[in-house]
Each structure stands twice: as structure tokens, then as C-alpha cells.
Amino acid sequence: MSNIIEVNNLVKRYKELVALDHFNLTIKEGEVFGLLGPNGSGKTTTINCILSLLSYDKGSIKVFGKDMKPDSYDLKRKIGVVPQNVAVFNELSVYENIDYFCGLYIKDAATRKQYVKDAIDFVELGEFTKFRPKKLSGGLLRRLNIACGIVHKPELIFFDEPTVAVDPQSRNKILEGIAELNKNGATIVYTSHYMEEVEQLCSRILIMDKGKSLASGTKEELKNIIKCTEKISVEVCDLTEDNLEEISGLAHAYETSYDDSILKVSFSGGRHNLVRVLDYLGDHDYSFGRIYSELPTLNDVFLEITGTELRDSV
Amino acid sequence: MFLHYFKYTIKTTLRSKESIFWSCIFPIALATFMFMSFGNVYNNTEVMNPVKTAIVTIDDKVNNNDIFLTIVDELSKGEDKLLEPEYTDEEKALQMLRDKDVDGVIYVDDKIHMTVREEGYEATILSTFLNQYSQKQSLIENIAKNNPYALNEGIVSITAASTNACRELNTSNGNQDNLVNYFYAIFAMSCLFAAFSGNDRIFSIQANITSLGARRATAPTHKSIIIISEFLASSLIQFVVECITLVYMIFVLGIDFGDKIPAIFPILYLGSACGLAIGMIIGALPKPASEGAKIGITVSFTMVLSVLADLCANGIKDLIEHNVPIINRLNPAALISDAFYSLNVYDTYSRYLNNIALLGGITVVLCIISFLMIRRNRYASL
């Protein structure tokens, strides 16, 4: 698979603030690539630099193997953008908006008509073609925003937080649609600060914060780079400090907490961790309720790498 | 591509309630209010009242006084009489002058002289009348004394000269009423209001101002094509709006714009284009960066230009013309109203064409500068 995007040593400053700090990124053809980071981490700045909207201080950007410049029209023709903010004309209907944006890429009227129809079918806005944007709900508006970005059937599509402020039903529709676009051959760059979306959708993920790339790889690769391999939670009453100390001393356990009658133990490696915890509780005559054994999530990866909860970060 | 953008610019502009209000409804409403506030003044022609004059005969036996009194009598007849004489003695006459019951006192003696109040056009009329009478009396006396045989011929010649001394001339068939200047200024302001549309056009292609601009900047389209197509579409809409305002003023309000109506259309198109170009250049200014601040500048700038072109009070434009004429040559609102004025006042088109050429020149220069300002494709921040 060839590289669709290559970003090398990108530096972008806003006066004193370093928005991108020697940032590197490689995206391969056919991937759904997730850019994960808290608000202000530099995700949108990265995309805007790749799209040649923003100037940058240092580094290089190649798209489809060529230097990306503001007048690289041959490259821009292959790129679709679904911006974070809904960017459509309020005075035009759903159909007219999609037709307008298609017209920026496709000259032939007959082809354009077919493409517009395909896009409307894809986002399932057939019933709303004559509606003006102001009459659409948040979810429908997001779907219109997507239709305007993908109508010209681009090979590379940027989705910049497309599910912000969208209800769960519409969010699922959007995620399914993105997966389908990828299945049809498009390379996707997806930014979000919703961990579970990225985990569900992306084949490779880059975690960034403060303009720096912190880690990248597949979900499994990312999970392997962190210490935690298993988290065990047990509902149990009246544990003492001594008990907690002894549990912390179990093989491979490295972190223990006890709050609201829930014991949480994190393990790094090892097998049969759950059996050891339950044996300990049984040996000390504790009866217990619900028991959970969880593998690490992207959230754990993010938490361990950045030291912050993703959604609460600013 | 060009037609695609052109079509959608027409659609978006026509569907924008704000733009339609400022472009069309506001000037029509303003013209209507202005017309109503002028009331009958606009429809009535100005009527000059006769000059109230006290005549004091000091010595009625002096030769020629009969002739003078006959002339006064003749000038006091008919609907368009010049004088309204009252024959009285000196004391009463002076009292009447003090009480402002009369505008002047003429003394009929061996020499005819007068006393008038210091101010007012009535004093000028009386003074002019007496001067002319004295000059002609003196001329006739000279002829009678030096060449009595030529007296008849001399009298005919002097009378003819007097008839031709002052003649009212119309330089064109236009309406030279001063009040119509206000309506020219409304057109000037209305054309400049196209600046708001110009703002919108530029905002919508600048990635650092609107998300729509950012989205369009990612498309493989030359900005020049978008700008030209949107400029032509917007100026066409504004021109149509101006034509509607013109039709309304002529046929509903009954404003007389003279007989050179076809020549008004170039003023309206170039005025609209110039207004649009002003909005574009303000929209393209790098600072202030915010949309609201730029709209604020546009409002202030267009209003100042309109005021300088006599929108609020007649005479400002003339004052500028006498002191800093270059401002009138550079102020599109003044050029628009002056183009209207010159069409109405002059038979020739040279001043009108000068205004049109300046308007076109300013528009082209503003468009080029705007384009140069926004052609940069990468932004320092979004």
C-alpha cells in the first residue's frame, strides 16, 4: 500500500504558542486513520496544514506523493473535506447545496446530477431535498455537511469531528456511512475526541497532544505499549487497609484502589489474575458481588500516555 | 463553472432577506418618506411676491415724474406684478418701513431716490429697478439734448436692450429643482449599499472568516473565477434593484428625472458595481479580522460617503466642490449624484461621461486591489 499522506517534521506556531511541534504522520492508501487528541491538541491544525489552508513554519507535506500547495488543483480534486462546523449555504436547499459543492469539482452537468443523487441516497436525505438547512435537525444537518464533502467521490476524505453534538442514532448512521466509504475504496482521515468512535472505526490511530505525536499504531499495538493488561473490579464490603496492601502485593498487580465498595486492581501481564484476587477474598472470608475483568481500552492508553482523561481535556 | 457559480450567487442573494431589505426596500422606503416630508414643496413652483413700496411724491411738478409714476403704475398691474405701491407722505412711509409694512420707500423728487431695509431680495429688486430707470432716463436726456432727431430711434434701441438684458434660459429639458438632488443622493446611497453584498461575497471565500470560505478554499477552483462570477451576479441583482427603485420613483412618486432616462442605466450599473467593490475591499482588509467589525466599517463608510453627497442636507457637496474638489472626484456617491445632476442640467454629456468614467475607474481599481488582497491562499491562522 502506498502512502497517501506524508507529513514530516511539521512545525506550526501561533505567535508564542507551538501548535504543531515537529509533527510526523504517514497515512496509507485504504486506511481509516484516526487522529485522536483532546481539544486544542492540534488535530484540526494538522488537517488545515495538509489541505494547504494554513501556512506552516517548517516541515513538508506530501499528498498522493506530491507536494501539497494551495494551487495543487489536481490533488485537491481527489480530496473531500467534511469540516467540524457545518459549512453550507443557508439560502440553498439540501439538493442545491450538494449540487453547488459538487460543481466545484465536477464540470459535466449529467455526471454531476448522478453524483448528487448518489450522495443524497448515501446520507439518506431523499425526503429532505427541498428543505433549507435551517429546517433540518442537528443530525440531518451533519449528514448534509457530509454529503457536500463526499459528493464528488473523493479518494481521500477528511472527517473533522463529524459527530459533535449529534444524537446516538445519527452518530451510528454517520459511522456506518464512513465505514462504507472506506469499503468502497476511499482513504479516511478521522479526527475525534470520542474514544469509542475511533476504536470502532479506525484501522490505525495516532494519539496527539500539545502538537506532538505521542503514539501511533493499530488498536492492539497501542494497547500493548501501555503497562496495564487487565483491570479487575470486584464488589466487596468492608476491606481494610491491610487487605488492600496485601492485594497490591499479588503477582503482577501494580495499582489498587477501593472506593464505594468496589475494589479495582490493575495488572501488568500475568495469567489467572482474577483467580488470584478471588482466592484472596475467599481465604479472608469476604463475600463478593459483581465481578468484572476488562482488557485495556484506548481510554486507558490515552490516560496512561497523556495523564489526562480525553473528554475532559481542554 | 462560471455559470454554475453565477446561478447560485443569484439564488443565494435573492433568498437573503437581509440583502433584499437593504438593497431594495430601504431605498424605496426612504424615498417615500423623503417625498412625504417635502409635501407640497416638491410639487409647487416658487412664486415671488410683489415688493411692497411706499411712494413719496416730494415735488409733483418736476418734469418726468409723471413718466416714472406711469411706469410704477404699469409694474403694479397683473398677476405677476413687480411692485405693490402705496402713495403716502414721508413720515408715514418711514414709519411703515420701520414696521416692516413696506420693503422700501421711493422718493419722487427732481431726482428719484430711495430708502430700503438692509436685508432681503426685495431691496435688490428695488435698487435694480431704480438704477435701470435712472440710467435710461439719463441716456434719453442726453440723446434729446445732443441729437434730438435720433430720439425715436434711441428710445426703441434702449427699450430693446432692456428687454434682452436678462432672459431665463434652460440648458436642458431636465428637472432643475434642487429637491430632486435628495433623490439622486438616495440612489447614491442605495448603490453603495451593494457594499454589504460585497462583504458577503468576500467573507464566503475567505477561509479565515467563515467555515464556508474554508470549505470552498479546499476545492480545486481558481478564486478569480469565483470572484468574477459572483461580482457579475451580485452587480446584476443590485442593478435590477436600482431599476425597480427608479421605476417606483418615476411612476409612483412622480419624481421628474428629465428626459434622458436611458442614460441613467449606466449610472445605476456602475454605481452598483462600485458599491459592491467597496464592500469587497473592506471585506478583504486583513485587519480587523472579524466579520462584525468589517460590517461596521462598511456601514460607517457608506453613510459618510452618502452624507458628503448631500443625502442629509443640500449644499455639502457644493461646499466640498469649492474647497476640496478632489473628494467629490473620489467619492462614488458624489459621482453618482453628480452624474444624475449633469444629465438633468446640461444638454451635453461631457460632465456625465466624466462621472461615469471616474466611477468605472474607481470600481476597476477597487476590484483589482481586493483580488490582490485575497489571492493569498494560505492563512496564518483560521
Please identify, by name, the CATH architecture of the largest domain in chain A.
Answer: 3-Layer(aba) Sandwich
CATH topology of the largest domain in chain A, by name, is Rossmann fold
Major sheet description of chain B: 4 strands, mixed
How many domains make up the 3D coordinates of chain B? 2
**What characteristic shape of chain B results from the CA principal axes?**
elongated
- Structural class of the secondary structure composition of chain A? alpha/beta
Q: Assign the structural class of chain B, choosing from mainly alpha, mainly beta, alpha/beta, alpha+beta, or little secondary structure.
A: mainly alpha
Describe the protein.
The complex is a heterodimer of chains A (314) and B (382). By secondary structure, chain A is α/β, with parallel strands linked by helices. Chain A has 2 domains: 3-224, 3-Layer(aba) Sandwich (Rossmann fold); 230-295, Alpha-Beta Plaits (2-Layer Sandwich), CATH 3.30.70. Helices cover 34% and strands 29% of the residues of chain A. Chain A contains 11 helices and 14 strands. In chain A, the strands form 3 sheets. Chain A has a 6-stranded mixed sheet with strand order 6-7-8-3-9-10, sandwiched between helices. In chain A, α3 crosses α4 (109-123), α3 (94-103) packs parallel to α5 (138-150) and α4 (109-123) runs antiparallel to α5 (138-150). The longest helix of chain A is centred in the middle third of the chain and has 16 residues, at 168-183. Chain B is mostly helical and 382 residues long. Chain B has 2 domains: 2-42 and 175-374, no CATH class; 51-164, 3-Layer(aba) Sandwich (D-Maltodextrin-Binding Protein, domain 2), CATH 3.40.190. Chain B has helices at 2-14, 17-38, 40-43, 65-75, 90-98, 121-146, 151-164, 180-192, 194-203, 211-217, 223-253, 264-284, 291-308, 316-323, 325-330, 332-345, 350-374, and strands at 51-57, 83-87, 104-108, 113-116. A 4-stranded mixed sheet of chain B has the order 2-1-3-4, with helices on both faces. In chain B, a hairpin with a 4-residue loop joins β3 and β4. Chain B is elongated. In chain B, 36% of the residues are buried. The interface between A and B is medium-sized, with 33 and 27 residues.
